[in-house]
């Protein structure tokens, strides 16, 4: 008896499940609108629209020392200038901080922020007009300078010597844009990150690296390759790093800007800055 | 109530179709169309990809695939014959090589060949950084295809070899003119598989650094993902991968059907 009924039962069950699922799909569709626009019940006065209450979730493309690096001994699991700045801001806002490793592509295209993987991206990201179309930036928190790193025995002394030279840059960075603009005679080789790029110049695959000054300084002072590389030129691009947030989350952007200003006024910003950059040059 | 067996089957099949429709309905209904069109179907971004996506990126992907497949299959042939050799040393060497390179991720081998070998031996593979990466792909795909070829050679009936020998053919000519042609026909489907895997593995070459005229599809997509700040380039690149791999596998399927007709 039971067996005889099975086909019908299957059919009925299938039809029912379609109806139920369609209904629930419609339901969630209209429901998500309401949730997205304003979620009531946040305890603090300004609603920062955080993805998890009470915690500032921060994405960063790690490692990129000295801005971000892994550190098992710290509370967040990470260390670096960006990490310290963000932690200080979170403290100002009375929030806990959670750091997530992410890819720079996802961060600077706005995908990580728009898909709510994190509230804020702190990843040595230069504020550019193109990025500002998709992302909301805080005020600048670090003035970025580009630089040229070459092997110590190289004859390259400035950006004018790069014609026909293999020049390593990082994909999607200000360094890449700067190289395209000012070193058009060079054979520009694009790398996913500094790790591959530094290996390549060590292996002789490229002749020079153009990227953010602090990273190149790190290579110049690399204890394992002491005296092998030198920074021969630096370039002031007039640009600065910003903390990236969802463009429409103005409440969070304002709060972060305010916290940054407080940190500068109190001298805490300078303290963090000196920890990483004081003795350079 | 007794149902005929045919009726039962029709009902069961009907239920399967209804379930499929339900899944499609759920996917369509829950998709955020506005977000999809904003993030994946930005027309200006799609237009900006043309024609480089075909003339540079797809061309390089095909080029890298053909180089590593051709190199890989030659290496595989040598390895397969070594594995079947009566000399134990050859068998050991081939087995060791295959086990070693099958067990390593292709990415690790690529980075090692491009950065590690020049550092360790002062020798740079021809073709610069990409050349090292291609060499790595040849080494890895060769290890995989060697096992496929060996299985194919062993699947050729023993009688074929014995017949050739009874005609007075030597070992080398028996292998080249009698066994290998039949073996290759047997291994065409798994080799097609390896070819399609290679099409996608060429994306790993981006890790060794690429000049703008050297980019393949994935790194092209990623570079444009950055400049356009939306995900349209990734979708475009995904479609081009399909345009490459589906006709390739269909062509092989066609050749296979034709060959089978001849064989009968």
Strand order across the biggest sheet of chain A? 4-1-5-12-6
Estimate the global geometry of chain A from the Cα principal axes: globular
Q: What CATH architecture of the largest domain in chain A do you see?
A: 3-Layer(aba) Sandwich
Biggest interface goes to: A-B, 45 and 45 residues
Q: Which assembly state applies to the chains in this document?
A: heterodimer
**Class of chain B in CATH?**
Mainly Alpha
Structure overview:
The complex is a heterodimer of chains A (281) and B (264). In chain A, helix 6 (174-182) links the parallel strand 8 and strand 9. With 281 residues, chain A is of the alpha/beta class. A five-stranded mixed sheet of chain A has the order 4-1-5-12-6. In chain A, strands 9-8-10-7-11 form a five-stranded mixed sheet, with helices on both faces. Chain A is 41% helix and 22% strand. Chain A starts with a helix and ends with a helix. Chain A folds into two domains: 55-141 and 242-277, Periplasmic binding protein-like II (D-Maltodextrin-Binding Protein, domain 2); 144-238, Periplasmic binding protein-like II (D-Maltodextrin-Binding Protein, domain 2), CATH 3.40.190.10. The longest helix of chain A is centred in the first third of the chain and has 36 residues, at 2-37. Chain A has helices at residues 2-37, 81-92, 104-108, 111-114, 129-134, 174-182, 194-202, 213-220, 250-266, 268-277; strands at residues 55-60, 69-70, 78-79, 96-101, 120-121, 135-137, 142-151, 166-170, 187-191, 208-212, 229-241, 244-246. With 264 residues, chain B is mainly alpha-helical. Chain B has one domain: Orthogonal Bundle (MetI-like fold). Helices cover 81% and strands 1% of the residues of chain B. Chain B contains eleven helices and one strand. Chain B has helices at 5-30, 33-39, 43-49, 52-83, 88-102, 106-121, 128-155, 158-166, 171-201, 217-228, 232-263; one strand spanning 210-211. In chain B, helix 4 packs antiparallel against helix 5 (88-102), helix 4 crosses helix 7 (128-155) and helix 4 packs antiparallel against helix 10. Chain B is flat, with a radius of gyration of 24 Å. The model of chain B has no long low-confidence stretch (mean pLDDT 89). Classes of the chains: A alpha/beta (281), B mainly alpha (264). Chains A and B meet through helix 1, helix 5, strand 9 and helix 7 of A and helix 1, helix 6, strand 1 and helix 10 of B.
